[in-house]
Amino acid sequence: SYELTQLPSVSVSPGQTARITCSGDVLGENYADWYQQKPGQAPELVIYEDSERYPGIPERFSGSTSGNTTTLTISRVLTEDEADYYCLSGDEDNPKVFGGGTKLTVL
Amino acid sequence: EVQLVESGGGLVKPGGSLRLSCAASGFTFSNAWMSWVRQAPGKGLEWVGRIKSKTDGGTTDYAAPVKGRFTISRDDSKNTLYLQMNSLKTEDTAVYYCTTGFIVGATRMDVWGKGTTVTVSS
Questions:
Q1: pLDDT, tens digit, for every residue of A45-72?
Q2: Residues of A in contact with B110 (CB under 8 A)
């Protein structure tokens, strides 16, 4: 099985740009999706197929992939963006895997 | 309205079994790829397994920690997904979410239930 690695935490001030990375060999061959999860809630899809924004997600959220690293970028961060963010990857014929998650703190 | 509602969670002893259900509505269930994702208390998300639609083969895939102990099945006539969990371990304690792809494609996970809690403890 493969792994996806995320930093446990990222902190930014309101209005700044947050970059959350996810690394793993599987990313070189498969798309990544990003999920946002707030306390007590189910996860919500924010970015799919590396860079496609899910309907209803603000344009401040964007995704990109280079080699074996995929990045979720949140521009002009708001306090409401404070949440846990998880990457997910894998193909249609094998198990998928989540990254360990990154807690975004908006100071 | 697209909706997934999980049920069947509860307290079970190590080594025991439990079957979770996920009732689906608001979309064509028979065309959907359905997945289970779990989250242990205070921990991250963990992909558990998936079942494809029958038209795509109806095959299943499982994460390594549950392979051989958990079985995913579906009843398209009842619009219901199941997760049969056997030989349960304390580390299986988690909230179990049912999820599927709806807006952005059958293979993604963009609709989620609220989850059902499974506690494995003696």
A1: 999 999 999 999 999 999 999 999 999 9
A2: 45, 48, 54
The predicted-structure confidence for B6-40, as pLDDT tens digits, reads as follows: 999 999 999 999 999 999 999 999 999 999 999 99
In angstroms, what CA-CA distances link A105 with A6, A14, A64, A73, B48? 15, 10, 21, 14, 28
| Spatial distance between the Cα atoms of B10 and A98, rounded to a whole number of angstroms | 25
The partner residue sitting opposite A48, judged by closest CB among B35, B61, B104, is: B104
CA atoms of B13 and B109, how far apart (whole Å): 31
Q: How many CB pairs under 8 A join A and B?
A: 61
∠ CA B82-B87-B92, nearest 5°, is 70
Q: What residues contact residue B28 under an 8 Å CB cut-off, 6+ apart?
A: none
Which chain A residues are Cβ-neighbours of B113 within 8 angstroms?
42
